């Protein structure tokens, strides 16, 4: 095992570090040190760029991501619906490397030692850190759907809830389905990644069927009591645009899957589909579990909202889908990006001996396509509340679209371009 | 080393006097919450159809935000978002963007 010492890696940081501790509280102190970021998705890429940008290169940042390129979940439902290609949602990490000086390593982080402040990589090396950021997204709780535990079963019954090869594979399954077939999508109990995402996917698959396979059906098996997000707007889209195509079933939790017959097993019922798309319940990415930090309900990481730092383990900050969310806060890419900036500001303060900003604000916007052009949004703003020590949604702010519209269809694509640039270039 | 002593003393005073003194980077941090849509430091991607905010005079941005809030300027989403920020926060945001290139 090769242990890379901070000293070796930080060629320029040391002098600045000494200065920073002396200038500590002045606000002009320059932060320095080495921050390791695990996961180059919406949270991780953002924190990496903003740490470099706001420290003007004073803080060294190493980003470890197992995939060679960034592939976006947002807009991936349009690949499944046939409007976009994988190329449209794939972006390289070269911008982070070349423009921002982030050291990007393609590898898997397999262990965290919070006492020694090191992470171990699958490739065999280890890195030491002054502060660690975990933005690993989610991993699936396969124990909850026993029939899908094996790799072969998982290659037949897809989730496509992490954009990548499964996105392409699900599109292929839909293309090869006969007209008159049934596509069923299952939604786990909230909280799950992207509350409106499954309903958006149902719309876009229905849109494809309407145009290419009009005798086919979309069935939504929702474990929740009711539509979790943008309810009025989605149900209106189903009745206006997809009457006779989309069928919504609430309280329909999938307990198991019989892969041989492509059948979802519900509590009292079974449902056989031609294309079965199961989104299993999920929890914080595995590395969060392995690192021994405090979890809520054994699923999500408990964090301090002033710094995104673990409540149990100093020096480890956690972002994005992996955290136990604040009240009404969705697990979204937009929000993970906001977490990244909150954490970057706090880390830079902490690395220069200052307290984190006592009044952080984060906000969210999620756009969903209901057909190839029309979009609906949900938005919210969350301000830190010292009394409850969490960020609380501001009453009277935020909301949803008045109605689906094409203007927001254009804005949604503009949103994607801007957030991708804000993270990666 | 001598020059650092008064500074250290000032630190102690500052932290004792105002436990919740505003962060010197508050404007920067608040403006960053806009960047997902309006671009890093207000530089929106060209051709994305979303307004850039960098270099826009402060008064102009504040007027636009006030019009979103009152409904005088129709919006798809900004009328909802603007209501989540205090006037003091909007002032800091507009000031920060005005200073960006
Ligand atoms: C179909 C779909 C549509 C969506 N649409 C929207 C939308 O329109 N708007 C929106 O805001 N959000 C949307 N989302 C939600 C959004 O994708 C997530 O909320 C967001 O990706 C969360 O960011 P994250 O950084 O927590 O995780 P991710 O973006 O998933 O990033 C985690 C990264 O960490 C890497 N990783 C994990 N563990 C390790 C390890 N041990 N070592 C190395 N690398 C590791 C993974 O490979 C991954 O790249 C959508 C999601 C889906 C599935």
Any overview of this molecule?
The complex is a heterodimer of chains A (425) and B (101). Chain A is α/β, with parallel strands linked by helices. Chain A has 12 helices and 28 strands. In chain A, a hairpin with a 4-residue loop joins strand 15 and strand 16. Chain A is globular. The two termini of chain A are 33 Å apart. Chain B has a single domain (25-98), classed as Cytochrome c-like domain (Cytochrome Bc1 Complex, Chain D, domain 2), CATH 1.10.760. Chain B contains 6 helices and no strands. The N and C termini of chain B lie far apart (38 Å). Chains A and B meet through helix 3, helix 11, strand 25, strand 26 and helix 12 of A and helix 1, helix 2 and helix 3 of B. The structure holds flavin-adenine dinucleotide. Residues 38-44, 64-67, 73-74, 76-77, 108-109, 135-137, 161, 193-194, 197, 285, 287, 320-322, 331-334, 336, 366-367 of chain A line the site of flavin-adenine dinucleotide (FAD).
How far is it from the N-terminal to the C-terminal residue of chain B, by CA? 38 Å
**CATH architecture verdict of chain B:** Orthogonal Bundle
CATH fold naming of chain B: Cytochrome Bc1 Complex, Chain D, domain 2
CATH topology description of the largest domain in chain A: FAD/NAD(P)-binding domain
Helix content of chain B: 40-55%
CATH class of chain B: Mainly Alpha
**Count of helices of chain B?**
6
Blueprint of the fold:
The complex is a heterodimer of chains A (425) and B (101).
Chain A: E1 2-4, H1 6-9, H2 13-23, E2 33-38, H3 42-54, E3 59-65, E4 70-71, H4 76-81, E5 90-91, H5 94-99, E6 103-106, E7 109-113, E8 118-121, E9 125-128, E10 131-134, E11 138-140, H6 151-156, H7 165-176, E12 182-187, H8 197-212, E13 217-222, H9 231-241, E14 246-249, E15 256-258, E16 263-265, E17 270-272, E18 275-278, E19 282-284, H10 286-290, E20 295-296, E21 300-301, E22 303-304, E23 309-310, E24 316-318, H11 333-351, E25 361-369, E26 375-385, E27 390-393, E28 399-400, H12 406-424
Parallel strand pairs in A: 1-9, 2-3, 2-10, 3-6, 10-24, 12-13, 12-18, 13-14
Antiparallel strand pairs in A: 4-5, 7-8, 8-9, 11-19, 15-16, 16-17, 20-21, 22-23, 25-26, 26-27, 26-28
Helix pairs in contact in A: 3-11, 3-12, 8-9
Chain B: H1 4-17, H2 26-32, H3 35-38, H4 58-70, H5 78-81, H6 87-98
Helix pairs in contact in B: 2-6, 4-6
Bound molecules: flavin-adenine dinucleotide (FAD).
């Amino acid at each position: 095992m090769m242990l890379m010492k901070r000293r070796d890696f930080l060629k320029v940081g040391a002098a600045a570090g000494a200065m920073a501790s002396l200038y500590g509280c002045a606000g002009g102190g320059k932060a320095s040190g080495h921050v390791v970021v695990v996961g180059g998705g919406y949270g991780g890429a953002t924190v990496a760029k903003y740490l470099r940008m706001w420290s003007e290169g004073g803080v060294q940042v190493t980003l470890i991501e197992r995939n060679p390129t960034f592939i976006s979940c947002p807009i991936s439902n349009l690949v499944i619906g046939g409007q976009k290609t994988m190329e449209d949602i794939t972006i390289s990490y070269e911008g982070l490397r070349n423009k921002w000086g982030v050291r990007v390593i393609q590898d898997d982080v397999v262990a965290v030692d919070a006492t020694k402040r090191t992470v171990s990589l699958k490739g065999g090396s280890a890195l030491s850190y002054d502060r660690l950021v975990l933005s690993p997204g989610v991993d699936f709780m396969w124990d909850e759907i026993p029939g899908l535990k094996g790799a072969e079963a998982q290659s037949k019954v897809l989730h496509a809830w992490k954009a990548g090869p499964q996105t392409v594979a699900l599109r292929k399954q839909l293309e090869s389905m006969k007209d008159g077939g049934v596509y069923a999508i299952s939604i786990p109990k909230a909280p799950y990644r992207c509350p409106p995402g499954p309903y958006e996917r149902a719309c876009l698959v229905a849109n494809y069927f309407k145009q290419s396979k009009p005798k086919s059906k979309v069935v939504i098996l929702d474990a929740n009591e009711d539509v979790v997000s943008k309810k009025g707007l989605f149900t209106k889209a189903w009745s206006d645009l997809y009457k006779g195509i989309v069928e919504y079933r609430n309280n329909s939790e999938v307990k198991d899957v019989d892969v041989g017959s492509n059948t979802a097993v519900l509590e009292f019922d079974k449902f056989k589909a031609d294309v079965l798309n199961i989104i299993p319940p999920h929890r914080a990415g595995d590395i969060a579990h392995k690192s021994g930090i405090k979890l809520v309900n054994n699923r999500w990481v408990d964090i301090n909202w002033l710094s995104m730092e673990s409540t149990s383990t100093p020096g480890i900050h956690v972002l994005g889908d992996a955290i136990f969310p604040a009240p009404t806060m969705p697990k979204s890419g937009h929000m993970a990006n906001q977490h990244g900036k909150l954490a970057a500001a706090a880390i830079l303060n902490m690395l220069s001996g200052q307290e984190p900003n006592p009044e952080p604000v984060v906000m969210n916007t999620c756009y969903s396509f209901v057909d190839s052009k029309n979009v609906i949004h949900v938005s919210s703003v969350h301000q830190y509340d010292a009394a409850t020590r969490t960020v609380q949604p501001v009453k009277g702010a935020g909301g949803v679209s008045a109605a689906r519209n094409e203007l927001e269809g254009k804005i949604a694509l503009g949103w994607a371009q801007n957030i991708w640039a804000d993270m990666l270039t | 080393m001598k020059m650092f002593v008064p500074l250290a003393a000032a630190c102690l005073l500052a932290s004792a006097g105002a436990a919740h003194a505003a962060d010197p980077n508050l404007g920067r941090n608040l403006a960053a919450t806009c960047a997902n849509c309006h671009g890093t430091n207000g530089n929106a991607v060209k051709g994305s159809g979303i307004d850039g905010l960098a270099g826009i005079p402060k008064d102009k941005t504040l007027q636009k935000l006030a019009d979103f809030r009152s409904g005088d300027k129709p919006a798809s989403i900004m009328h909802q978002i603007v209501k989540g920020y205090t006037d003091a926060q909007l002032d800091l945001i507009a000031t920060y963007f005005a200073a960006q290139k």
